[in-house]
Amino acid sequence: MENKQHDPGTLAKRYAPAVYRLAYARTGCRADAEDVMQEVFLRLIKARPTFDNEAHAKAWLLRVAANCANDLFRRPWRSREVALKENLPAPEVSESENVTQAVLSLPARYRIPIHLHYYEGFSVAEIAGIMGKSEGTVKTWLFRARNLLQDKLKEGTYREESIQT
Q1: Quick one: which of 131, 138, 116 has its CA closest to 18?
Q2: CA distances from 69 to 23, 66, 136, 150 (A)
Q3: What string of DSSP letters covers 48-95?
Q4: How far apart are CA 101 and CA 145, in angstroms?
Q5: Would you state the pLDDT for residue 165?
Q6: CA 148 → CA 14, 77, 128, 132, distances in Å?
């Protein structure tokens, strides 16, 4: 008999916001984040993995989300996209939106660890497991990302930069 706690519907209700936030942190686009979230839960239904506990289930979903978000940038049509060339005025943004924009302007490899650490509360060891990287790599990425964020927030340079993939 399947554990009701690990039923795909229950997991989707519980962890969809975290999966979406991670996908958005990686892609910087709501539509892409929604596509990633849909793919993650389709994979959950297809794979029907067995989880030891809630932490294992959440880690599995976030790892799949990170992988799906990364896969999105490898798709052939992504190389044909071009940025808008119009100079549109930037809307007024709140301080929390400034931080979000600064995080989204980070290089892609830094966005996921920052999101997992500060928004989802994962430790360095847990992030390393989710991302399939060493703890040293995650620590380095977090250190570099913090420095970049500090510089970007001081200078406000994230406003002119496009989101880097």
Answers
A1: 116
A2: 6, 5, 23, 25
A3: ----SSHHHHHHHHHHHHHHHHHHHTTSGGGGG-----S-PPPPP--H
A4: 13
A5: 42
A6: 32, 30, 21, 23
Q: Report the predicted TM-score, pTM, of the whole model to 2 decimal places.
A: 0.66
pLDDT of res. 134: 95
The residue among 126, 128, 148 whose CA lies nearest residue 138 is 128
**Angle between helices 30-47 and 8-27 in degrees, nearest 10:** 140
Find, among 142, 107, 108, 105, the residue nearest to 123 by Cα. 142
Please list the ranges in the chain whose pLDDT falls under 50.
1, 80, 90-91, 93, 159-165
pLDDT on residue 37: 95
Q: In the chain, which ranges are continuous DSSP H helix? A: 8-27, 30-47, 54-72, 95-104, 108-114, 124-131, 135-155
Q: What's the pLDDT score for residue 15?
A: 95
Single-letter amino acid code for the residue at 13: K
Q: Which amino acid is at 104?
A: L
* Angle (deg, nearest 10), helices 95-104 and 135-155: 130
